Amino acid sequence: MAATESTQFNRDSVVMTTAHPKPCVDLRATFGDRYKMAWDPAYEAERPDLRTREAPWLTRIPGRFGFIFPWGHRLLAAWCAMSGQRQDRLTAVPGVEVRSGGRSAGRLCPEVIVTFDVSLIDEVASVIQAKRRHRKSPAQQAVFTAAQAASVNHRFQKQSTTAKTDVPEG
Questions:
Q1: Cβ atoms < 10 Å from Cβ of 119
Q2: What pLDDT does 62 receive?
């Protein structure tokens, strides 16, 4: 991504679920081009006929120090497994509300769950070091496409049968 390109989040580009009775932010549709996605472990346990409906609720954005997941309507949540400075940085983001764990009565819990508005995704994602999608410039994409086409042509080219080996008859 170019340094001059803005990474600010556009509030109007949020995609909400419509198939589920309780709406939430559809992470794959809204942020799938910016962040890597993963399924919640409960996705595999879900009945196959309900997976499509439940999929937005069972999607995560993985990170080095936790993950982001839907909380409901326009709220997202982040789970952070690191205590200390990382937790303090996460809970210090304006608009973030601690739901579980964190500092309580002077004691520090080893994990914290916070909720935040979808517009704060970039700040929270930077704290938990969410995994970003790799982006190629148009020039890099053209080189990649050409190399891929050359590889396919090379692999499926018919092998020449005209070459004979010198085998003595005997």
A1: 15
A2: 96
- Each residue's pLDDT tens digit, 108-145: 778 889 999 999 999 999 999 999 987 778 888 888 88
Residue 4, CB half-sphere, CA atoms under 13 Å: how many?
0
DSSP classification of residue 25 = B
Q: Which of 114, 97, 120 is nearest to 14 (CA)?
A: 120
Closest-CA residue to 65 (of 139, 149, 125)? 125
- Count of CB atoms within 10 A of residue 100's CB? 13
- Rounded to whole angstroms, the Cα distance separating 77 from 84 reads 19
Compute the distance between CA of residue 68 and CA of residue 76 in angstroms, rounded to an integer: 7
User: Measuring CA to CA, how many Å separate 114 from each of 7, 70, 107, 120, 163?
Assistant: 22, 11, 17, 12, 69
Q: Which residues of the chain register pLDDT less than 70?
A: 1-12, 17-21, 104-106, 152-170
Q: Which residues contact 73 (CB under 8 A, 6 or more apart)?
A: 16, 23, 24, 25
Q: What is the pLDDT of residue 1?
A: 39
